[in-house]
Write a structure and sequence with these properties.
Layout: E1 16-19, H1 21-24, H2 35-40, H3 42-48, E2 52-55, E3 59-60, E4 72-76, H4 83-95, E5 99-105, H5 114-119, E6 130-131, E7 140-141, E8 149-150, H6 181-199, E9 204-208, H7 221-237, E10 242-245, H8 250-256, E11 260-262, H9 273-279, H10 306-319, E12 324-328, H11 347-354, E13 360-364, E14 384-386, E15 389-390, H12 427-431, H13 437-450, E16 460-464, E17 469-473, E18 477-481, E19 488-491, E20 499-509, E21 512-524
Parallel strand pairs: 1-2, 1-13, 2-5, 5-9, 9-10, 10-11, 11-12, 12-13
Antiparallel strand pairs: 3-4, 6-8, 7-8, 14-15, 16-17, 17-18, 18-21, 19-21, 20-21
The structure holds alpha-D-glucopyranose and calcium ion.
The site of alpha-D-glucopyranose has 9 residues, from loops.
């Protein structure tokens, strides 16, 4: 098998910023964020120092799942603007050195997509997975003249595109091999979609549910083959574009062809433990199937960075220089950092860690000012996934200012109310205050950008995987973070912290480093 082209050089320096388009910035006063709104806020992004934006789906959709139910892959939803407006945004961002990635919903469409309507009325159409009669477990009855039932991929209104099954079964006649005609048409369609948007100047895609394509696929071998084929095609046709997967298991997804994969709240043999063991404090979005755990970034000091470090070591050893792991602060499906018992004063240490670890950092819009997860919101555009899993709390409007709607001009925004707390953080207030979280994130990004040793290719030596967490980057930079409330010390031996680059509540005395509660420090070791 031929190997892949190396990832485009720009990716190693990427600092991702995830924009939820409906909630970011509204230019025309209809209460819904839009492309022109984002374009008007590019100053914020370039001042912050992020260089790669990922936009959640912005395509024609009935918005039953906030746009993850795509009804037309080649045209944007009118509520966000036109294809031209998107192209203009990409162009204006590009002039400031900011790339834009779109979301590729590869595994399913909306049940209103014309492909599905056609398939629901034509028993010879195999773009979707159809049981010819009855309604087997997990299937949904046909809405059209075609008898039988279709397989959904997520919500019932998101029929799975047919990429085939890895194994056939006489009892399940709907299982088609991966090279049947329907699966081949769908693979071709993915290339057409990618080609369309890359041609408009987009820089790649975050791929939704990337591991879901081929069904009953042990070890994801057949799903991986599809991505390998697509990566080879991309290497030939769009060598500067990247694929970032929502998969949560970089050891599998990157060898399959992705340039980078997220550590997620799910995925891999331990079901998202790497990320959850850092951030998930039992509040916000909680899946009842998760075993309770004490996360590391918690005042109690009962957690440990070990589950994360071990998962990172396994994955990064498997990847070598073939690709990257991405580490999000949170995302549109998961609690924000500022959630439940975690308060704003605990966030600086979290960013000091996230922006100095050898992963690609992804900042979820609003986390840079410490926006809070808002509990108890109504089910909005499919936000509720379980009794304790409401994603709306992480999707509230970006808090630009302290007006009643946070800078959104009407109260009609689908994800209103904004955080009702009278002292909620805003961009305006934090921009004016250089002791704010926003300024710290800005400085940390600048430091990382100016310091290759702090990037994903610099080495890391873990000195102490506990409270405080101590590591050395590139043999030259000492990082200390203490996410618990209590003070913590560690004997550094021969290591002498030199020049303080970004420090709060961390000091060395003799051979011992002491970090106050929620303290952090980045030092340049004496040369
Ligand atoms: C992914 C998306 C999520 C969506 C689901 C179905 O997990 O991140 O928001 O609901 O896929 O497309
Ligand atoms: Ca608008």
């Amino acid at each position: 098998m031929t190997s892949f082209r190396p990832a485009p050089a720009w990716l190693a320096d990427a600092v991702f910023y995830q924009i939820y388009p409906q909630s970011f910035a509204d230019s025309n006063g209809d209460g819904i964020g839009d492309f022109d709104g984002i374009a008007e806020r590019l100053d914020h992004l370039s001042w912050l120092g992020v260089n790669t934006v990922w936009l959640n789906p912005c395509f024609v959709s009935p918005f039953g799942d906030a746009g993850y139910d795509v009804a037309d892959y080649l045209n944007v939803a009118p509520r966000y603007g036109s294809n031209d407006d998107l192209a203009k945004l990409v162009d204006r961002a590009g002039r400031r050195g900011i790339r834009v990635l779109l979301d590729l919903v590869a595994g399913h469409t909306s049940d209103r997509h014309p492909w599905f309507t056609a398939s629901a009325n034509d028993p010879d159409d195999h773009r979707y997975i159809w049981a010819p009669q009855g309604c087997p477990d997990g299937f949904v009855a046909s809405p059209g003249s075609r008898p039988g039932a279709y397989l959904p991929n997520f919500f019932a209104f998101q029929p799975a595109l047919n990429f085939g099954y890895a194994r056939e079964s006489p009892d399940e006649p709907w299982r088609q091999p991966v090279d049947a005609q329907g699966p081949r048409a769908n693979r071709e369609a993915l290339r057409t979609i990618m080609d369309h948007w890359l041609g408009l100047g987009l820089s790649g895609f975050r791929v939704d549910m990337a591991s879901s394509l081929v069904k009953d696929d042990p070890g994801k071998a057949e799903t991986s083959r599809i991505w390998t084929e697509l990566r080879h095609w991309l290497d030939r046709t769009h060598p500067e574009a990247v694929l970032l997967s929502e998969w949560g298991e970089p050891e599998i997804s990157v060898p399959a062809g992705f340039h980078t994969d997220f550590f997620l709240q799910f995925g891999g043999p331990a079901d998202g433990l790497a990320l959850r063991s850092l951030w998930s404090n039992g509040s916000g979005t909680v899946n009842l199937e998760w075993d309770p755990l004490d996360c590391f970034f918690d005042a109690s000091g009962k957690g440990s960075p070990r589950p994360f470090v071990e998962a990172w070591q396994r994955a990064s050893t498997a990847l070598g220089s073939s690709g990257f792991i991405s580490l999000p602060t949170s995302n549109h499906d998961f609690s924000r950092l500022n959630c439940g018992p975690r308060s704003a004063d605990q966030l600086p240490a979290a960013f000091a860690f996230q922006l100095t670890w050898p992963t690609l950092p992804a900042i979820y819009y609003g986390d840079e000012i410490g926006m809070r997860y808002v509990p108890g919101l109504p089910d909005t555009e499919g936000s509720v996934l379980g009794p304790r899993y409401n994603r709306a709390g992480s999707r509230t409007p970006m808090q630009w200012d302290d007006g009643p709607n946070a800078g959104f001009s009407t109260s009609e925004h689908p994800y209103l109310p904004v955080d009702p707390a009278p002292d909620r953080p805003t961009v305006a207030a934090q921009r004016a205050d250089d002791t704010s979280l926003l300024h710290l994130v800005h400085r940390l990004i600048a430091l990382r950008t100016a310091t290759p040793e702090l990037g994903p290719n610099g080495s890391v030596e873990v000195v102490h995987a506990g409270y405080p967490f101590v590591y050395v980057r590139g043999g030259r930079y000492l990082v200390v973070v203490n996410p618990q409330q209590g003070q913590a010390s560690y004997p550094l031996g021969n290591i002498r912290p030199g020049r303080a680059l970004e420090v709060s509540g961390v000091a060395a005395d003799g051979g011992t480093i002491t970090a106050e509660g929620f303290g952090y420090g980045i030092f340049e070791l004496p040369g």
